[in-house]
Each structure stands twice: as C-alpha cells, then as structure tokens.
Design brief:
Strand 3, helix 3 and strand 4 form a beta-alpha-beta unit. This protein has a four-stranded parallel β-sheet with strand order 3-4-7-8. The protein contains seven helices and eight strands. It is α/β, with parallel strands linked by helices.
Length: 205
C-alpha cells in the first residue's frame, strides 16, 4: 500500500481531467480536495519529495482516514477480506506514527494473524525521521520491517569488504537489538525494486 501520496493522474487527484469525475483538481467542492494541500490551486501543491507527479496526501484528513483505514469498507479492510493476509506499507517513514497505529488496529480487527510490514531502510528501533524518534518497534504501529541492514551486511561480506566475524557480529547485534516478535518476522531480503539486484552487485564486486 502506498498511502503517503497518490499519482497526479490518480482518479482522486485527476490533474489532467482524464476521469470526468470530481477529482481534487476540479476544486473545493471535490470530496477529495481536502486530501491534498494546494499552495496555489490547481498547479502548485505539496508533493512527495518535490515530484509534481506525486501529490502528497494529508493523512490527518478524516475523510481520507475513513476511506483508506477506519471505515467499515475501507481500502485496508476490503483487501484483507478479499484474501490478503497483511499489508506492506511503502515509505512507512512518510506516514505519521498515529496513522500507522490506525492501520495496524484496523488490520488486527480483521484478524490477529495478519501482518503489517513497513518499508524502513534503517534500524527500526533507532529510526528517526522529521526530527522525531519513531515508534515502529513498540508494538502498536508495525509488526516488522524490511531488513535492508541484513542486505548491507551480506553484500559487504560477500564482496570481501568485511570479515566473517564482522558479519556474525552484525547478525548478533540485530538479534539482541530488536524486540523478539519483530526480529523473528523481519523480511530478510537481498534484492528489491529500489536497489541494484544482488546478481548485479555480486557480478561487479
């Protein structure tokens, strides 16, 4: 789920008028207008990392929260009922802690066995963003995260940049650092769409 932003061509924003419905760019009467922050309507708005093609969502807006998370037929709940067994949250750092907590609460209400996995690139226990210590590891926001530090440690060892002892120390540090439930659910990965593939990295090592 990508919930920190939508596309400019999204049906909810509809910058280019492709959908013929009441997208945010049609004006303040749109039910989606308050989902976004316009600096100068309709051509300047808050966007994800400055990319105009990715208008940023106002996650504090109650109508957005109801549509995506809290409503009886929200996006979060609907796809779980259709067979999904959890959510992987894109750029979890861009979502406020209270919004992550709302998502996890909705997921848990559907089933305590469903998981909320966050895209977090650093140590989730020590993670800070926007000047605040994040609460990922406290049990109310994310069940676990993508384990990019594991990827870094593996690549460093296989490329001959670290010793076997250093690799073992990195693995032990994670085991000791993470809360046990989060640690045993870490998504250990070597490749993703956001980084060079492991095959490429080892070919150039």
């Amino acid at each position: 789920g990508v919930y920190s932003h939508t596309g400019a061509d999204s049906i909810y924003f509809d910058r280019y008028g492709h959908y013929g419905i009441n997208g945010a760019c049609s004006g303040p009467d749109s039910p989606y207008y308050r989902w976004y922050a316009f600096h100068h309507f309709p051509d300047r708005y808050r966007s994800w990392w400055g990319f105009e093609t990715l208008p940023e969502v106002n996650e504090a807006e109650k109508s957005w929260q109801d549509f995506i998370i809290t409503g009886d037929n929200s996006v979060i709940r609907t796809w779980l009922r259709e067979g999904a067994s959890g959510w992987r949250l894109d750029v979890a750092d861009e979502l406020p802690d209270n919004v992550l907590e709302l998502i996890r609460s909705a997921v848990q209400e559907e089933s305590p066995d469903y998981v909320v996995l966050g895209e977090v690139w650093e140590d989730a226990v020590e993670k800070e963003s926007y000047g605040r210590k994040r609460t990922y590891a406290l049990g109310d926001a994310l069940d676990t995260v993508m384990n990019y530090p594991f990827r870094t440690a593996v690549l460093s060892f296989l490329a001959g940049e670290s010793t076997a002892q250093q690799f073992a120390d990195a693995l032990l540090a994670q085991r000791l650092h993470y809360p046990t439930p989060m640690y045993y659910a870490l998504m250990n990965l070597l490749s993703s769409h956001d980084v060079p593939r492991i095959r490429t990295m080892l070919a150039i090592a």
